[in-house]
Amino acid sequence: MTHTRSILIGTVVALLAVSSGVAHAEDGPSIPPGTEASASAPVELDANDPDLKLPDGATLAEPKVLDIKQVVEDQSGDERREDTNSDVKFALQAEVLFGKDSAKLGAAAKSRIAAIADEIKTQNATRIRVFGFTDNLGSSAHGDVLSRKRANAVHGVLVQELSDSNVTYEVRGYGEQYPIADNSTEAGRKKNRRVEISFPRTDS
């Protein structure tokens, strides 16, 4: 450890000398630290060093697969898909589904939801979550009601499209809770006004 410290201190001193503009005539070309002819080999590790061993009775945690998230958003930003090891989530911006301050779906919106229903069928999913969200404009109570009405409208289309499937639903309106973007800008508020459809993925 003493030898390692001396190398580090020497390096720091050299760096300080360069940064302060100090130079000596005998200083040759700049050589990266550790590559000098006199540099010693890396310090060897002692496999029996007690500091490198687990304490008595300690165990390593069980290995686990980390949850990897893949996010795909269409060019307009109207639709966003998130895939993880365990779930699939679609987020549809309110503007492509509803009119302003409305919970009525148009034909184009129903077509988008039907496409998601096809994915649900492909995944053989039987538990579907439909959550509505708004931005933070207006009262919180109004946002709660509007987001729930919009979630209900999307739920209604899914029920029609998946009528031959044994599916259970969780439908909620969260209003301005759980923003995914900055509500201080219109671009951020647009992302926050959304309906999310999510379900556990399968190996299908």
From TrEMBL:
Record InterPro entries: Bact_OuterMem_StrucFunc, OMP_bac, OmpA-like, OmpA-like_sf
Superkingdom to which the source organism belongs: Bacteria
Keyword Nucleotide-binding (UniProt): no
Signal peptide: 1-25
UniProtKB keywords: Cell outer membrane, Membrane, Signal
UniProt cross-references to Gene3D superfamilies, sorted A to Z: OmpA-like domain (3.30.1330.60)
Residues annotated as domain OmpA-like: 85-203
Compartment annotation: Cell outer membrane
Region ranges (Disordered): 182-204
PANTHER family named among the record's database cross-references: LIPOPROTEIN YIAD-RELATED, STATOR ELEMENT OF FLAGELLAR MOTOR COMPLEX
Name listed for the protein in its UniProt record: OmpA family protein
Species this protein is from: Streptomyces marokkonensis
